Amino acid sequence: MRTDYDAVVVGAGPNGLAAAITLQQKGLSVLLVEAKAEIGGGMRSAELTLPGFIHDVCSAIHPMAAASPFFSQLPLEQYGLEYIYPPTAAAHPFDDGTAAVLRGCVQETAALLGVDERVYKQLMEPLVRDWPLIATDVLGPLHFPSHPLLMAEFGLKALPSAVQLSRRWQTTMARGLWGGMAAHSMLPLTKTATSAIGLVLMITGHLKGWPLPRGGTMSLARALGSYFMSLGGVIQTGFEVRSLKELPSSRALLLDLTPRQLLRLGGHRWSSLYKAQLERYRYGMGVFKIDWALDGEIPFKAAVCRTTGTVHIGNTLEEMVASEQLTWEGGHPEKPFVLLAQQSLFDPSRAPEGKHTAWAYCHVPNGSRNDMTAAIEGQIERFAPGFRDRVLARHVMDTEQMESYNANYIGGDINGGAIDIGQLFTRPALRYSPYRTSEKGIYICSAASPPGGGVHGMCGYHAARRALKDVFKLL
Hints:
Number of helices: 15
CATH architecture of the largest domain: Alpha-Beta Complex
Number of strands: 16
Structural class: alpha/beta
CATH topology of the largest domain: Polyamine Oxidase, Chain A, domain 2
Shape: globular
Mean pLDDT: 96
Distance between the termini: 29 Å
Helix content: 25-40%
Strand order of the largest sheet: 7-6-12-13-14-11-15
Low-confidence stretches: none
């Protein structure tokens, strides 16, 4: 291995890869190091249950990757990435056998919401129209936007809590669909700005759909890695960094790590103020995840759920509000909100002929060791009677196992820290640029920096651009 580079990036998750690519595109010499044997972070796939059943270990469905202002402009299809787009982006079943759906068109989605059709169109049509103009600003640090009036319009809709915004709608169907979207925030739905993630997911669904990579999420990671190396970048796997002194010398160091790792690796290097802010950083709810090998499709009562890649299982808005609040307060709901993906319905490479896979998780208190298998399967059985009879094998991961899989998932928090209003733009610390650490030339580029969790690469992209300005004077 060389002993010096222009830049070194630690951690080969979506943000580390985005940072490395952004730097390499400028002709710099970049080394990307990864502790695990394979790059990807949350973008890995494996035979977790039975031979021939390919499961996504963490991330599965990728609306944010497909709509990412950075990833979407890369020629990743030349490096093996193929997105599959289910005909329905997401579905939300109810106890009566009906289901709300998110389709690719605002009008199609709205038309199924009865008396809420007009209100849905009034809310979403301007946002979908304007998103290409504001996406980079929304998915970035706090700064003066390129289109301030459009950003203000988005902010007025995104800053209220999900419960506050839900008052626009009258029907159980519209309110339930909205609640399932907003619950991706991993916060109580009464919290300020929980509308933001729900709106972004609905916008991307209408513009790009909610696709899955053919062959597994690992296809996205491998395409990013191959593109980076085609530019001349260097990747070293199996390199677990225990001290920043172990790394080759470089002019810039970018860390796809969260505050806890920053404190462990370089606590003595940070200023007292920066160190104090890192120590106060708050992690959010964790997840309990299950993968199944199935003997057939999931027999949802609502037929539309059998033609969608993602199913939100939570019934009414009120039920989801109660379960997420209880989880935030340290409890374990008997009927948790469950996010479920059915990749093999659309990608036959995921399972042997006639068989299927399923992927799901629910939120749990940070660090919880409770086994939520019965609760999750009970929720699926509730809307798909006979589901348990089709289970051939299962693989479970609690919060400790999630953190062991990816050290950034502290206590099972896959968002890299709570994305509430107190940490939305100031993650991980209140600074002129949130990507700068207190030591010159060292940057944080993980989901613990703006805009937070999700497979979009924008944290790494913005951190790398900060380094290009500060260190290399290339922007």
